[in-house]
Amino acid sequence: MTHPPTFADPEIAGLLRENKQRLLDDWSREVALCLRGSLEPEEIREDLAELLQAMIAAMDEGADETTTGELRALLEELSRRRARQDFRPSETATSVFAIKDVVRALLGPAPAYETLERFFGFSRFVDELALITYDSYVNAREQVIIDQAEQLLELSTPVVKLWEGVVAVPLVGTLDSARTQVVMEKMLQTLVETGSEYAVIDITGVSAVDTQVAQHLIKTVAAARLMGAECVISGIRPQIAHTIVTLGIEFSDIVTKASLADALAYALRRSGVEIVRLPEETQ
Amino acid sequence: MIAGRAPAVGEEVAIASNADVVRVRQVVRSAAIAARLSLVDQTKLVTAASELARNTLVHGGGGKAQVETLVQERRSGVRVAFSDQGPGIPDPETALTDGWTSGNGLGLGLGGARRLVDEFDLLTEVGKGTKVVVTKWAR
């Protein structure tokens, strides 16, 4: 977070106040042009009137942290609202920039050097204001990304119970070290909590198995074995099988099945459960 | 290097963290799809890229991957070059041997990656860095 912009120039503030109506007319027109008529002129005018009022207050005599803070809050709110209305951050910033042209026009065709100096100061002030709208847009977006990443990590670690004594871990997407670790720890934990003897690791949703992923799988199977449970790896698709063989990874002492259904059937059979199809008349 | 090659579409990915290894995989996969590699070949190339990108990160201390799609008159393919300015590999032949590992991995990464692709070039100099260039052609 940057500090609230500070720019005190009562003279320019006075100029803006005297020409408020004309400024608002011109500014609204400019903004409406760059937003290509996708907002109602009244709405634009209302937004800008509020903003102009806050700008004048922040430049005027007696401006303090409260007035600049209000201006910042107003800009952040404007940015959020425009973002929700699907405007790009550059469009919001451009609406703020537009006041420069309008104020420059107020100064007449040949302003004195001193007036121009003042205008440059004002221009820098406007730049800072536009940057605030940009920053708050980026912050809002980053928050969305952080939220989604957290949701994904939660999504990615389910351990489900398939049957009494049989749990399954469906692995999906990209397995990096951190994720695999989380999933595997959770699986071992669930084995203990549910007293299960069979765990199925399903890798149907995994796009590639490299040596690191394979190593994690092998270690997990070994850890489960130490706990007295048996692991079955299922969902090995043809291209993955091909790749594993070419890489030279040995899965030889691990039970693998083509599908989750096969793995469940295997685990059930091993734990003494038999599945039989009922004769037709009893269905 | 190869005559009659149309201008290649290249993309460079910096490798500085585990997340970048994932990005390399994604970029390589899209390039493999664009070059019409079969599903098996896509997976092989992506897996090889994953191994090599991780080597770049873990042993080379980070570097970059350059992914390009090659289009020739009769075939298309994907070439990926991994380079780092790390310590280099003192004995490349040993490093390519299955089961030989400098860390605590399976020791199959480098040799396995070589088997997964059609062309494999390893250039390394101790103290200067390592460059591995792999190519996979669509059948």
What does the model show?
The complex is a heterodimer of chains A (283) and B (139). With 283 residues, chain A is α/β, with parallel strands linked by helices. Chain A has ten helices and five strands, in the order H-H-H-H-H-H-E-E-H-E-H-E-H-E-H. Chain A folds into two domains: 10-152, Globin-like, CATH 1.10.490.70; 160-270, Transcription Regulator spoIIAA. Helices cover 63% and strands 10% of the residues of chain A. A five-stranded mixed β-sheet of chain A has the order 1-2-3-4-5, sandwiched between helices. In chain A, strand 3, helix 8 and strand 4 (230-234) form a beta-alpha-beta unit. Chain A starts with 9 loop residues before the first helix and ends in a 13-residue tail after the last helix. Chain B contains four helices and five strands, in the order βααββααββ. The longest helix of chain B is centred in the middle third of the chain and has 20 residues, at 39-58. Chain B is of the alpha+beta class and 139 residues long. In chain B, 35% of the residues lie in helices and 29% in strands. Chain B has one domain: Histidine kinase-like ATPase, C-terminal domain (Heat Shock Protein 90, 2-Layer Sandwich).
